[in-house]
Structures are given as structure tokens and as C-alpha cells.
Design brief:
Elements lengths: L1 H6 L15 E12 L2 E9 L10 E2 L2 E3 L7 H13 L6 E6 L3 E2 L4 E10 L12 E8 H6 L3 E7 L23 E10 L2 E3 L1 H22 L2
Parallel strand pairs: 1-7
Antiparallel strand pairs: 1-2, 1-4, 2-3, 2-8, 5-7, 6-7, 9-10, 10-11
Length: 212
């Protein structure tokens, strides 16, 4: 009966609408402690890759069907790219989920790399790694710009079915973009958004701890 189908929804937990068609990914924001200072570790993608060669990113990738959870994806990809073992990674917690206009769902996790001397990058995926002092990132903010995305209709899009047709007041998608500059390298895009989110959380935690 129809009523039974409706009742089956009782206490249902929500999910992200359309997640079945989305590309699910996960990344790790790696922290390294060295000589009493904390650093954020970044990768420079191999110049031989077809997708975004030479760009700066965090280790991570697409969720594999064999990965039980998104965190497992982030750890597995980090091990593959940095040549470390899972016991050299201590996951601290999860940051907020990022959903892009292209329907990519990205989960991100903060973690310690316990012994960075054991890192041996996979040259097929990683050109090099470098680290930025966390104190520097907390003190010096990124350059900020707005990226505006406009609707781009296919020739057969049924504008005639929409009130006012092509004159419909579609909302423009405004994306805040961050650019971090460090010794000739540029951190931008999704990596910069995740980094900025992490930095803002640390600032919020500082205010909470000081009672401000």
C-alpha cells in the first residue's frame, strides 16, 4: 500500500541529494612536527599526470569500492602517494565536507605524519613535497577573489518551459577563491579552500580557549 511506503520513511536519515551521481573523494591534510614547530605538508603533482599536472594539492583521491569509509580512502591514497604505512598516520578528525559546482563531494581529514623522514614519494603521482610552517599560515592570510559562474545552456535546453525563458533571473554562483603564495608555489582551488577552512577552525578554537 502507498501508506506503507510513506511509513517506511519514518526516522529516515538524510543524505546529500544526488550523491549517487557524484564523484566521491577524500583527502588528508597532513601535519608534521619538526624541531618543536608544526608544518602543513603539501604535494606538487607529477608533471606527467594528465589531470592538473604540477599543481599543489593534499594527498587523496577517489573513493574505492573496497574503502569502508572516506577516512580509509584518504589514508590509503596518502600511503600510496607518500610511501608511508598506515601506522605512520594518526588521524585527528574530520573537516567539513566540500561540494563543488561539478557535483564532486570531497571529505577531508586532519592527521599527523608521525615520522616524516619515512616519506618516499611515488614519482608517478608526486613531483615533490614541501612544508609551510603553520605559524606562517595563521599569521599571513591568502589573497582573496570572487569567481562568478554563469549558466551555460545546451542548444536543446527547454528554456520555453521556464517562466520568462532566457530572461529568467538565474542566480549567479559566487565562489570565494583563496590564493596562498609560498616560495614560488601557488596554493589555490579546492586545496586552498580546505586549508583556509582548517586555519579558520584553529582561530575559532584559540578564541574559545581564551574566552574571547
Amino acid at each position: 500500500m502507498l501508506a506503507d511506503r510513506i511509513e517506511a520513511l519514518r526516522n529516515r536519515k538524510g543524505n546529500i541529494l544526488g550523491h549517487e551521481q557524484s564523484l566521491k573523494t577524500a583527502v588528508l591534510l597532513p601535519l608534521v612536527e619538526r624541531d618543536g614547530k608544526i608544518y602543513v605538508l603539501f604535494e606538487k603533482r607529477s608533471l606527467n599526470l594528465q589531470h592538473q599536472p604540477g599543481e599543489i594539492c593534499f594527498p587523496g583521491g577517489v573513493k574505492d569500492p573496497d574503502d569502508p569509509q572516506a577516512m580509509d580512502t584518504a589514508v590509503r591514497e596518502t600511503c600510496e602517494e607518500l610511501g608511508v604505512t598506515p601506522d605512520n598516520i594518526e588521524v585527528i578528525g574530520e573537516l567539513d565536507t566540500l561540494i563543488t559546482p561539478s557535483s564532486l563531494i570531497m571529505r577531508s581529514f586532519v592527521a599527523w605524519i608521525k615520522d616524516s623522514s619515512l616519506i618516499e614519494v611515488n614519482p608517478d603521482e608526486v613531483d615533490k613535497v614541501f612544508m609551510i610552517p603553520l605559524d606562517f599560515l595563521l599569521q599571513y592570510g591568502p589573497k582573496e577573489h570572487i569567481l562568478r559562474l554563469k549558466p551555460d545552456f545546451s542548444d536543446d535546453f527547454p528554456l520555453q518551459l521556464i517562466p520568462h525563458g532566457a530572461n529568467y533571473p538565474f542566480r549567479l554562483n559566487r565562489l570565494q577563491q583563496y590564493f596562498y603564495l609560498w616560495e614560488g608555489e601557488v596554493i589555490w582551488g579546492l586545496t586552498a579552500r580546505i586549508l583556509h577552512h582548517f586555519i579558520e577552525l584553529l582561530k575559532e578554537n584559540e578564541q574559545s580557549n581564551t574566552g574571547e
